[in-house]
Amino acid sequence: MGQDNYQGALQRPIGSGFNAESTTGDVIKGIDLTGKTAIVTGANTGIGYETALALYEAGANVVVACRDEGKAKQAIEKMQLSEGKGSLEIGILNLANLEAIRTFAADFKNNHQRLDLLINNAGVMMPPASKTDDGFELQFGVNFIGHFALTGHLYPLLKERKNGRVVTVSSGASTFAKEVDFDNLKLEKPYDANREYAVSKLAGLQFAFELDRRLKAIGSSLLSTASHPGVVYTDLQRHIPEDELKAAWKNFSTVSDPWQGALPSLFAATSEAVTGGDYYGPDGEREQSGYPAPSQLLTGAERDEEQARKLWHYAQEKTGVIFPS
Ligand SMILES: NC(=O)c1ccc[n+]([C@@H]2O[C@H](COP(=O)([O-])OP(=O)(O)OC[C@H]3O[C@@H](n4cnc5c(N)ncnc54)[C@H](OP(=O)(O)O)[C@@H]3O)[C@@H](O)[C@H]2O)c1
C-alpha cells in the first residue's frame, strides 16, 4: 500500500523546481559537505536514517545519534553500502534523560573540533502514558525538552561555524495544538496521546523560531530552521494499534516512503535559499507528500513571541541550559 500511494505522490504536478524523478540526492545536488560535521538524532531508522544517509553521501562526517548502540551499528553498516563521500560514527544519545544528553554533548565536544549541522529529528508519537527520567510527559520530554537541552549544550561549537544550521523536525500535527499547556507537561491531566504529541510538535516550532529570533538579536550567523516530513510510513506509528492505523491511513491521499520524508529536512539543512526562521514541508496536497516548499501549515501559535518566550524560560529553568549568548 505504501509503495502504491508513494507512486501516486510522484505523479502529481511538481511545483518547486524538482521533478518526478527527484531524489534526496537532487535536493542536495551540487552541495559538497566535505569537511563538515553533522549530528542527526534518531538516525537509526525512518526519516532520520535517510537524512543521515544523504548527508553522508554528500561528504559530511555524520554522527548517527541513537539511544540503542546495536541499532546504530546496523544503520551505519547499511549506510556504508552506498559508499558515501563522507564518514559515519555512532553517538549514544537518550533524549529522555537530561544527564545522558549532557554526557553525549560533552563527549562530542571533547572529540570534535566543529559542528556544522544539528538535525533535531528523533521523535516519539502516541506512546502509552509515560514520563522521561526527569519527569516530563514522554513526547514533550523527548521531542522538545531533550532537543532544547541538546542544542544548548552544543551551541558553543555550533556558533563557531559561519552559517551553521539547526533544523528542528516538527509535524503537521502541531496545528492541532493552540498553545503549550504549562499545567500539563508532567502528566498532571488525564493523558491524551494525540493532544500531547501535538503540543510537543508545536513546542518544537516555537523553539525553532524563538532560537532564530535570539540568534538574530545577537548577530549570530547560525541559522535555526524547521521542517516537517508530511505523512510517511515509518516506525513512528509503532504505538498505534493496527486496526486504528489502517483506518487512519485512509484519511491520507498519499503516504510517502522515508527517503521522501527526509527531503524537507535536507533542504532546510543545506539549501542556500534557506534563511533563519524558515519552515519547510512537502509541496503536495495538504502537505502530505512532495518536494520541499515553505510550509503553510501554521495557525499563528508557532510564531507567537509571548508564548515562545514563556516556553524558553520554562525550558531554561527546568534543564539548567542557558543559551544563546
Ligand atoms: N512519519 C511521519 O509521518 C511523520 C510525520 C510528521 C512528523 N514526523 C517526525 O519526523 C521525525 C522522525 O520520525 P520517523 O517518522 O522517522 O519515526 P521513527 O522511524 O520512529 O524514528 C524515530 C527515531 O527517534 C528515535 N527516538 C525515539 N525516542 C528516543 C529517545 N528517547 N532518545 C533518542 N532517540 C529516540 C527512535 O529510536 P528507536 O528506533 O531506538 O526507537 C528513532 O530513531 C520525528 O520527529 C517525527 O515526529 C514524522
Bound molecules: NADP nicotinamide-adenine-dinucleotide phosphate
Order of H and E elements: HHEHEHEHEHEHEHHHEEH
- Name the average pLDDT: 92
Runs with pLDDT <50, length 5+? 1-15
Biggest β-sheet: count, sense, barrel? 8 strands, mixed
What is the C-alpha radius of gyration, as a whole number of Å?
A: 18 Å
Helicity range of the residues?
40-55%
**In terms of quaternary structure, what is this?**
single chain
Total DSSP E strands: 8
CA-based shape: globular
- In CATH, the homologous superfamily goes by the name NAD(P)-binding Rossmann-like Domain
Q: What is the number of helices?
A: 11
* Count of distinct structural domains: 1
CATH architectural name: 3-Layer(aba) Sandwich
- CATH level-3 fold name: Rossmann fold
Task: Give the termini separation.
Answer: 49 Å
Biggest sheet, spatial arrangement of strands: 3-2-1-4-5-6-7-8
| Structural class estimated from helices and strands | alpha/beta
CATH class call:
Alpha Beta
Strand content: 5-15%
Protein name: NAD(P)-dependent dehydrogenase, short-chain alcohol dehydrogenase family
Keywords: Oxidoreductase
GO molecular function: oxidoreductase activity
Pfam families: adh_short
Structure report:
There is one protein chain. Helix 5 packs parallel to helix 6 and helix 6 runs parallel beside helix 7. This protein has 11 helices and 8 strands. Helices cover 41% and strands 12% of the residues. An 8-stranded mixed β-sheet has the order 3-2-1-4-5-6-7-8, with helices on both faces. The chain has a single domain, classed as Rossmann fold (3-Layer(aba) Sandwich), CATH 3.40.50. The N and C termini lie far apart (49 Å). The protein is an alpha/beta fold and 325 residues long. The site of NADP nicotinamide-adenine-dinucleotide phosphate has 31 residues, from helix 3. It holds the Pfam family adh_short. Belongs to the short-chain dehydrogenases/reductases (SDR) family. InterPro entries: NAD(P)-bd_dom_sf, SDR_fam. One of its GO terms (molecular function) is oxidoreductase activity. Keywords: Oxidoreductase.
